[in-house]
Amino acid sequence: MIRVVLADDQALLRSAFRVLVDSEADMEVVGEAADGDEAVALVREHGADVVLMDIRMPGTDGLAATRALSTDPELTDVHVVILTTFEADEYVVGALRAGASGFLGKGAEPGELLSAIRTAAQGEALLSPAATKGLIARFLAQGDGGSGGDLPGAGAESSRLAALTAREREVLTQVAAGLSNDEIADRLDVSPLTIKTHVNRTMAKLGARDRAQLVVAAYESGLVRPYGSEPGA
Predict the structure, then answer these.
(1) What is the pTM for the complete model shown?
(2) What are the residue boundaries of the HTH luxR-type domain, all occurrences included (predicted)?
(3) End-to-end CA gap in the chain
């Protein structure tokens, strides 16, 4: 059972999300929050697996709450999905840096929301190729937020990035393009299990908690250039 916390200052929207989530046999809403502090408290109390987090809330916003969750060593299995009205929102990049697994527009179809919850619960990143090429590349190319904030391993050609093998760099480039393990395996003509091993090793070397942080690290380090100037980017 996937335990979900809903964090949004609009009660009507939370109610709609609750009905949708609770209608599924494999997930349940364990708490609702109207601000970031309440969301963090609920997660700590109920041990939620996924948080649907509105990025803009009064008081403690979704960005601060995401950072609080991702930096708590006791909450490493909690995954945050940012809910935003506009996909081209500079705050989304900040949320990814803070530890979010990805983002979803509030206008998404019900099936997309449920799929996002299941994807996040599995530790996968919610970043489509279009999102990585557009949103991530655009704001990182503009130096949004400066040095990379809280992302472990961020910064130009750090020693962590230098520790990657040639194959790990190649795989990281494909991850940054929003490709799944199966898609990368098909491109590189190896097994998905081999790609999973490379991804896990890369995450360990960069100190990244999930694929979303790998994507941001790839752009911020310069391994992947904005707007597809690198193969597979």
Answers:
(1) 0.72
(2) 157-222
(3) 36
